[in-house]
Every structure is written in structure tokens, then in C-alpha cells.
User: Fold this.
Amino acid sequence: MEIKSIVNELNSLAYHGRGIIIGKSADGKKAITAYFIMGRSENSRNRVFVTDGEGIRTQAFDESKMTDPHLIIYAPVRVLGNKTIVTNGDQTDTIYELMDRQMTFEQALRTREFEDDAPNFTPRISGIIRLENGDMNYAMSILKSADGDGSSCQRYTFAYNNPLAGKAKFIHTYKCDGNPLPSFEGEPKTLELPDMDIDSLTDLIWKNLNEDNKVSLFVRYIDLGSGKYESRIVNKNEA
Assistant:
């Protein structure tokens, strides 16, 4: 599979929608994840990420301008023991709650479908990182309509054991711009993770997201040995 640079990949589309990146640092010592949201409507752009326990949630930047919280307000990141869950919707809570009852990531997502925002039927994208014995494995999922037909849901899960250092996988909601917006297709893309600290990577991702459409970015580095993490949040509305 082609290995893409973060710079080239993020600049390849003006509107990725929402995106999840998961991988292992170049030195092999950290799990790295990033989640970003983009928006074109005033309602979608009127958001910020805020810290919520060990994870984050979205909230309105200007409450007076929030017209519909449905599909907009949710917890993108939650932590369950040695697992970090990252998604683009309230399926974060579904995964957390059902895995806490001993169901698997894939089983939890079988209870959900794509978003009910016809005609786009925005895919639900999800990721989970599991730390174990000083290493990591992770999985990604996409729930999407069958070629834009809202009567049929297609579910894909991609699992990555013993991931390679300095590489990441990237999945986003939309294949490209359009009306309606076409869903992401194929396997998650492979990205090269540069050997850099969290602030440098956060800056790299943020600067290369489309200036007009980017809304918020979250980045986390998790130490594979100790499980300790550090996070960064960037919000356009607070810049």
C-alpha cells in the first residue's frame, strides 16, 4: 500500500469531513492518535473540543448560534482501562458501555449504523487502541451506506496487530467533496509518522488542514510502557 505523507494527504482534499489517525511513534515507544473535525455549515463550525475526564467532548462555541445539537455534540474520546476509544459520534458511548459489559469493539458497532443525515448518510468512523505488555494493537471501523442508499448499512473493521513504528492509518468520513457527499472508500490510508514531539505533530496536522473548513483538532501520545499520556487540543474558534 502506498505510504503517504501527512502534508500531502491533508492537502489532497479541501474537505475530509472528520478524520481519525492512529499509529505507533517512530521510536516505537508511544501510541499516537489524532482526531479532527471540519465543517461547512455555521452549526458545524460553531464548536470546540474541551477536556472531559480522560477524554474530550464537543461543545458549542456560541450557545446562541447552536441550531441543532443532533450529531454535533458528543464525546469523541473516552478511556476504558487500557483502551482508548476515538470516534466521530455518540457511538463512542456505545463502544464504551458495551465493551465494559464484555462485548467486543466489532460487536458493539453492530448495534449502530451510519448517521441519519440524508442524503449524505455520513459514515460513523471509529478507532480503538489497546495497550498490552508494553506494546499496542488497534482497530478501525467504518459504518456506511451502500453507495448512498440509506436502506442498507455496510460495516467494515480493520485490525492491526504489532503495528510498525513510524506508520499510522488514517480514515475519514468523505471520499471527496460533492452533493451529496460520497462516503470514504477502501482501507484506511497509510501515513508516515514523522519523528517529532506532540507539539510539532499537532502543529503539522493543524497547519495542513484546509483553513476555511477546519474546526478542531485533538492529538494524544500514550506511553506504551506506563500508559501515561499527554494531549493537545486546538480550536479554530479560540485561535
In short: The domain at 3-238 is CATH 3.60.20.20 (Glutamine Phosphoribosylpyrophosphate, subunit 1, domain 1). The mean pLDDT is 96.
